[in-house]
Structure formats: C-alpha cells, structure tokens
Amino acid sequence: MAYKIKSAECTVCGACEAECPNIAISLKKGTYVIDPAKCTECQGQFDSPQCAAVCPADCCVPA
Amino acid sequence: MSNVVSLDSIFGLGELAPPAAMPAAPEAASGCSSSSCGPLGEMGDGPADMDPAVWEKVKNHPCYSEEAHHYFARMHVAVAPACNIQCNYCNRKYDCSNESRPGVVSEKLTPDQALKKILAVAQEIPQLSVIGIAGPGDSLAANGRNTFATFEMLQKKAPDLKLCLSTNGLALPEHVDTIAQYNIDHVTITINMVDPEVGARIYPWIFHKHKRWTGIDAAKILHEQQMLGLEMLTSRGILVKVNSVMIPGINDEHLLEVNKAVKSRGAFLHNIMPLISDPAHGTYFGLNGQRGPTAQELKVVQDACEGGAKLMRHCRQCRADAVGLLGEDRGEEFTADKIEAMGAIDYDDEARRSYREHVEAERAGRHASKAAAQADVRDSVGTAVDPILIAVATKGGERINEHFGHAKEFQIYEVGPGGAKFVGHRRVDQYCEGGSGDVDTLDGVLAAINDCTAVFVAKIGGCPSKSLAEAGIEPVDRFAFDYIEESALAYFKDYAERLGQGVVQSRAGQDAVIRTGALTARRA
User: What ipTM describes this predicted complex?
Assistant: First the structure.
C-alpha cells in the first residue's frame, strides 16, 4: 500500500514533498521518489493522497 | 565576467550630467506641472500626484513605475517551482530558453544558489534595484519555504535591494504576516476574475486545505482568498499590483469589474496583460484554439479601466528567471555554471548607489522639460487633433537610442494635445542580424506597429525605411538620442500642421498584432 512517482512525467517541482504528512518523499538523483515503507496513501490522515492531489503533472499514482 | 559596466555605457552618450539644452519650465501652467493633469490622465509618475511615502517605494521599481522602467533593472530568481493551482494558460512542463512568458525558467535554483546569483548580477548591472520571486510555480506554495529562505539571506547580505514577490493569492492570507516581517514592500497578485463562473473557465483545479477542488468550488475559494489577501496587504501599507490575463471571450469585459473590485480594496496598480496562447506551449488554451487579444482589443479594455485602479502598461510578462531592464533578458550571462565559476562574490553597492544618484539628478529636469513640451503643443495645436501612436526604438534611459534593425521591441507612445504617454510595447524579431535585413522579419515588424503613425529610431537603413513609408508609417531619425516624450510632442506639433495641410493621413482604425513569442529568441 503505497504510491509512486512516474519519474518520466515528474517536473521536479517539489509540491508533493511539501505536502506529504509522512516525510516519505525525497529528492534522489535529481528526481523525487516515495519511500514505500513510509507511505500510508494518507489513509486516516486525509481524504486522499496529498501528493496526487497537489501534483501538477498528475504523476503520483498507486504503486 | 570581466567587464564592469560603466554608467557611460548605460546611457551610450558619454554624458552623465542632466541634459544641457532643456526648454525652460513653463510658468506653472494651470498651476500643475504634473502630466497627470492632462486629459490623458493616469500617466502621473511623480511626486505631484502621489503620496511621497509611496513615491519613495516605487520610484526605482521598474515594475511599479513606468518612468522607473526606463532606468532600473529587475531580477527574478526561480526558487519556487511548486504551485497550488492549475491555470488553463499555463503548462508547467514547458521550459524553453527562447520563450518569454511567466511560469517558464531554464534553471531552478536553491536559495543558496539564488543568493549567489543575485550578488553576481548586482555587481555586473548597477541598474539593478529589485529582486522578485515569481515562481516558476507560486512563490507561496509549498509553504513559501524557498521564497522566505531566499529573502531572509538577501535582507542581510544585500540590504539595498528591494524585495517583491508575486502569487496567485490562494495561500496569501496565511503568509501576510511573514511578508510584512521581511519588509517585502511590493506584492503582485494575479486576479483574473471576481466571479467564480468566470473563474471556472480559467482554473480547472486548486489545492487548498489538503484537498483538490474543481469547478465553481475551486474558483470561489480562490476568489475569496485573493480578496482577503489583497485587503490584508493593503491594510498593512504593502503596495499591491494586480495582474490580470485578458482572455478574449472569457474575461475581457469582466476585467472592468475586476478593476473596480481591486481598486476598492486598495490595489496600487492594475496590469492587464494579453493572454499568451500557442499550441506549441501545450497549455489547455493553446491546444484548444483560445486566442489572445489584438493590440487594439487590449488597449480598448485598458482604456476602459482607466479612472479605476491605476493602469500599468509596461509589463513585459517576464520569465520567472528574467534578468535586466524590462524588455531585455540577460539571464544567459548568469547561468548556474557561470556563477559557480565566479568563486566568492562580495557585496558592494557603490556602483548602484552612484547610478541611483545620477537618475535622481536627471529626474527633476525631466519633469520640467516634459511639461514645457506639453504646454507648447497645447498652445499651438489646440485640442482638435486626435492623438496618434508612435513606435520607439530604445535601449532605455527614456531616449531614442536604438537602431531600427537592432530593436527587439518597440515602445508605443500615445501623443496628442494632452501630452505624450507610454501605452505599451510590441515585441518583434530583430530585423537586422549579421549586417543584413530579412524581408519576412520586416513584415512581422510592420504588423506589430501597424497602428502607429511613425517609428522613432536612432538610425535606419534605406530598405526598411522605404517599406515603412509604403505601409504608411513614417520612419523618423531626426530625434536620434533625444528624449522620447519631448520628441514625440515636437513630432505631433509638426504632424498636426501637416494633417491640416492634407499632406499626411490619419491612421485611426488600424490594428496591430501582439507577438507572444520570445524576447531572447533568435528567429525560429
């Protein structure tokens, strides 16, 4: 149960990193990645996964 | 980075003193030396029609004072790539160094990189007075972290530079206290509507309070946040400029209501900009055939809004990493690689201080000289002749100091019995490259200034001169290196005479094409 970032479509804007309540998103080798061990898909925290809701490129998707 | 810029090279005249041959000031014509008293209204850049405290804030700010934009440079640092809304005129995937429009950058910077770049540019460009953060996303999205980190360092390292930011307003209310704390005197809010029905056609979604909102709900929240943020800023004495993108068929007439709404909430300036729309940009509007306005359509809306919030017409819709005077972009001289190679850079404001003192000295004389030229036209021409438009090739300093073939834009002045005023600019492809002119490019220039009666240049070749004359636009080089407004008034006086004799025709009713392409571009 985790989300992932489709790196080919990511614009590396960092909006997702700022919104993630679990500090699961970080910049690795010039692209943002989600740590599946930390990702909760925001269940119990918010209505929907925050990264997907804020992403301008709609590239945060279920892994 | 070897050459330190001299003031001489900025003016290109080898003179630093205020101009010697200045017409005598009029006998306080109608008790007011401010140009804002003329029938053209609105143009008043100067202490006479402005609270001195406000004038102090705007006089050296190229984006807030039309006069200042001839003399002072700005720099945007692209530290804020994240955004919290989607606009139909923006595609955040697009990045091209040959494109000049908001939301576009070549390099994203960390706050540390931004600081170093600012110090490097400040050493090289003494006209630099303003540092802005305008994205490429929203400066206050992602909690404004990078924006405020940059300003915090800058405030300590380079205190003579003014700070400003621009935002869509969604996250503005929660950041107003922080903005005030960093002495950010100038904030720009992009407000395209005050009616959510209109907004729903411009914004597909927003991200607010941990949720993505769409449709009318999204536009309603955005509108409320924008109005609240605007009120909060103006009540704290922070100057607010409102940017509006004019989208024909969607918000063109509606912008009059926007103008009223922002004026009543204390906005200092209203900047109505043409939509930049091209399928190649990959924006929703671009891909769906939404067009931008023509030059005259834009002017009609701007003119209709006059008398409301003060209009700004000199906006160049800069990239989020623009460097230099408005109308130029020297960003390529300051890429990350080049900055990195520079080593340590010290802060030294001496060149900037002496440049500012020079402009201050020149200013007093300029106001009197403009008023004298205006009084002369009023007395000799009367009010019967309609105003005309003049295209001007200039490199800055309010002078006609650019060759026709080298111009990347023409500044447009409206001149008539009420005075001369800057009303806009038209971007063009440089006609002359490598010593020879290009016919296709010339056609583009003609289309861009087709509503003008004359074009003022420092120099022009025989061929383009002939083509302009055939198109009914008079090429004029007799005012080379003189001040623009005084020359425009002198020309108008002569024009009115020739019109009376039937030697020239009025160009009323002509329109022109707004070119939305690149400022920095070579020809495609």
Answer: 0.95
